[in-house]
Amino acid sequence: MTAPENQPRRPAIFTVDDDPAVSRAVARDLRRHYGERYRVVRAESGADAIDTLKELKLRGDTVAVFVADYRMPQMSGIEFLEKAMDFFPLARRVLLTAYADTHAAIDAINVVDLDHYLLKPWDPPEEKLYPVLDGLLEEWRAVGDRAMPYTKVIGHRYSDRSWEVRQFLARNEYSFRSVDAESQKGQQLLEAAGLDGSKLPVVITEKGETLVEPRDAELASLLGLSTAPQLEMYDLAVIGGGPAGLAAAVYGASEGLKTVLIERATTGGQAGRSSKIENYLGFENGVSGASLTTTARRQAERFGAEVITTQEAGRLKVGGVGAAHSIQLSDHSTIGARAVILATGVEYRELQVSGCRATPDDPSEANFVGRGVFYGASVSDNSECAGEDVYIVGGANSAGQAAMYMSQTAKSVTMLIRGPSLEAGMSQYLVDRIRRTPNIVVRTCTEVVGTVAEGDHLSGLVVRDKQTGETEQVGCDRMCCFIGATPRTDWLEEAGIARDDHGFILSGPDLREKVGWTLDRPPHHLETSVPGVFVAGDVRSESAKRVAAAVGEGSMAVMLVHRYLAEA
Ligand SMILES: Cc1cc2nc3c(=O)[nH]c(=O)nc-3n(C[C@H](O)[C@H](O)[C@H](O)COP(=O)(O)OP(=O)(O)OC[C@H]3O[C@@H](n4cnc5c(N)ncnc54)[C@H](O)[C@@H]3O)c2cc1C
Helix, strand or coil for residue 310? Predict the structure, then answer.
């Protein structure tokens, strides 16, 4: 075992393998690539490794990644990783396995929340080892414990804007730490920046730049994102930067169309809020929504698409067959496009309970949105809910993912579902995982009927058993609602875009049956009632509401745009 003494305090990459030759080979490959930034520490047995971990912990050192061999006598790699999590819970976890042990590795994804498994041998490491570890180290740096300069977001725990700022940064995979303005550290930072804390949140970047109450557009420019289109006319304008819009931008730009994507907030859409998407093809260990969609944004930009964030499309003026359509943006500028793809997705429905409406009809009604009540997953980093009693309302996969993610640090997670069982709305893999998680409780046939306040934030809920009608008050630090979603398509009415009774956009064959299509040719699949305007993803009537379906439709819509442009 290499002794950690006398080495600079860099974060460690920790490897354990009982075969000395393999152990040395792993350490050699790791040092070659990561030696300058990380300390490679190796051990040749689980027990030895645990002793070293204790030593590292005592010295205040950090571990970024564990790489453990699966087949070790006395203590298997999975057992080791389980123990190692007690010392360094934020470190990423990789299991080394032989091909025959792949099933054990897949099981370990559930047991120790494995981040990756690597098949031995991993030659060449440039292809099989480093890309995996690069990704994990990047993730670790985003949340991990490290002695490096980092961006701080100083705000109140119960402030909706502080929460929005953190979400904006996290969804773009921008690494930061959240600091409570009331804490000693928060006070010190504000004082050092010459601020009295009356205006929050404050973002202090790694370079010391200070943004007070930053607007989304300022955050976007901090991140180097574009907020204004460069041209007046495009071949293709994609509205919405979720998976469908991002796929359309990648395919549009890569196939030579001058493409612009307009996104109201930040790219990622609903998928960007998912802590871990596990059923998207090609990611056997799952992928965080932020990681998937940030990569997709970069990919679209690499092909030459302009990706514009913090601009909402508010008006579509139809140009007639073959002529350009024009789109008005929230800064009142207008762009033209020969074809348009609408990929505006859906938004969570609000719980119609006092305290849970962002803009209540009665202004005297309390509003805890962003102050204990959240729509969708509420944490950009699960340490935000450490020690809390969290309630998750809803029983679909998105609710299940959030429950699993928050259960890692929350004191308790209670899922409230109106139906009689989880199975009705959730994939079995998640149901099984939830059942195995001791601090998640599932309450069926239960609904929220009231909120309880402490000051200006949520402190409890009133829940009702739908079978007995009995109500009960429970303590709750954070409630995250996942109760179905609706499209925001009212702005398309003026353009004559036909929609179904729920506001979802009709397209292709549905138009002929329900709306009446006037052109000689039939509408293309995914073409809306306005020729040259296409729809993709969750906003389409009868769509599948899945990442893969949205991506598929976004790419297919581009093929149909080509067909339309060729005819026009
Ligand atoms: C927490 C969570 C977890 C999920 N997990 C999974 C999973 O594990 N597997 C799976 O397959 N699916 C999952 N889903 C569903 C999946 O994320 C969606 O089906 C997918 O994101 C739909 O993509 P989309 O591009 O059609 O729409 P969205 O993702 O909804 O994106 C639409 C985008 O359009 C923008 N927009 C809206 N109106 C305008 C406008 N007027 N101007 C500009 N921009 C606008 C919005 O801001 C948004 O960014 C999950 C959803 C959630 C919420």
Answer: coil
Is the shortest distance between the CB of 347 and ligand 1 below 6 Å? no
Find the 550 Cα to ligand 1 centroid distance in Å.
8
- Looking at residues 60-68, what average pLDDT do you find? 91
274 C-beta closer than 6 A to ligand 1: yes
271 Cα: distance to centroid of ligand 1 (angstroms): 5
Per cent of the chain over pLDDT 70 is 96
What atom of ligand 1 comes closest to residue 544's alpha carbon? 19
Mean pLDDT of the chain: 90
Q: Is 239 in the pocket of ligand 1 (CB under 6 A)?
A: yes
Please tell me what DSSP assigns to residue 504.
P
Expressed in angstroms and rounded, the spacing between residue 345 Cα and the centre of ligand 1 is 5
Whole-angstrom Cα distance, residue 214 to residue 436?
A: 42
HSE-up of 461 (CA within 13 Å, CB side)?
Answer: 26
Please tell me what DSSP assigns to residue 76.
Answer: -
CATH value of 152-222 in 3.30.200.20, 3.40.630.30, 3.40.30.10, 2.60.40.10: 3.40.30.10
The confidence score (pLDDT) of residue 6 equals 43
Cα distance between residue 544 and residue 546, in whole Å: 6
Q: Which helix (H) or strand (E) holds 559?
A: helix 547-567
pLDDT, mean of residues 285-313 = 94
Q: What is the mean pLDDT of residues 466-480?
A: 96
The answer to whether the CB of 82 is under 6 A from ligand 1 is: no
Q: Which CATH number fits domain 12-143: 3.40.50.2300, 3.30.9.10, 3.30.420.10, 1.10.530.10?
A: 3.40.50.2300
C-alpha of residue 88 to centroid of ligand 1, in Å? 33
Q: Which fold would CATH assign to domain 233-347+486-567?
A: FAD/NAD(P)-binding domain (3.50.50)
- Please tell me the pTM assigned to this model: 0.78
